[in-house]
Amino acid sequence: MITFSGVQPSGIITIGNYLGAIQNFNPNSSKENNLYCIVNLHALTSNPDPLLFKEQTKSLLALYIALGIDQHSTIFIQSQVKEHTELAWILQTLVKMGELERMTQYKDKSNNNKENANAGLFTYPVLMAADILLYNSETIPVGQDQLQHIELARTLATRFNNKYQEIFKLPVAKLNKKGAKIYSLNDPLKKMSKSDPNPKSYISILDDLKTITKKIKSSTTDSLGEINYDIENQPGISNLLTIYSLCKNITIDQTIEFFKDQKYSFLKENLIEAIWQILEPIQDKYYQIIDNQKIIDQVLKDGQKIAKQKAEIQMKKVNKVVGLYD
Ligand code: TYM
Prior knowledge:
three-stranded parallel beta sheet; binds ligand 1; Rossmann fold; two-stranded parallel ribbon; globular; Tyrosyl-Transfer RNA Synthetase; mainly alpha
């Protein structure tokens, strides 16, 4: 059974990315069956500065290595396996414009302004479907915001299988139930996002202790003064409780029990400590790896080889049943 997921190198990843998806990138069997892709072609839809873009891609790779993901999984860069775009083109001929127009992430990212959105942003979910189907992936660890895209990948796989031949398996999203959606620190009704222009809204994996302290201390709460897990009436506090419970690997009930009758300042101080306990060792390793070009190159080379081999086999089958000269 193949597990696959992707993260965009569109900025330093946040604890939302980490707790919502990356922490779920666990070993299930062998390196060949756990594939984690740095989806730089997706990130290109935000038209990044080329030098910064390359740095961010390398930085995400170094973070994966710091997290030990390369020990049990294949890590690779999307643009280094050209079959992703090849399959995306074929799937584009099967998707309907209406289906893409209904994608909520497209609506958000284009600010409902079709005239100015680039076409890559519009067809983004098709490339994502190609990422997944290229490897016959069955389990996709992601946050809640990707569910609609995975549903579209299933639709396209079914449509292709019915029209041509049964080639694709139907992928299933694997949500980390508690952390499926981590909210912004200063606007807890919005998702925490690495592309948010206000850095106070997120904790980056590379934030130092001083920055984390400032951000958590200034995070939005409410005037009730009581610690409850109540997303509707106390979204800020509930979000902080979720983050704490994930950092400490305890349930929400255990978290509430611990903070019951305490002040918000007590919750925030403990949360800062809990986040730092997770991030400090990751950062130590990250800073050792980021300048070690040899390790980075080796991981990339190994990853590209494994991914490419699988992708070529799948594309041969696809091209054949579609009737394309290969
Ligand atoms: P991206 O780069 O926006 O986010 C990477 C992963 O982090 C999850 N995530 C969150 N989870 C919980 N709370 C949050 N606030 C939060 N913010 C982000 C995302 O759900 C995601 O799992 N389209 C994808 C990348 C992609 C992909 C794929 C994923 C491309 N191809 C194939 C899976 C399979 C994206 O933009 O992720």
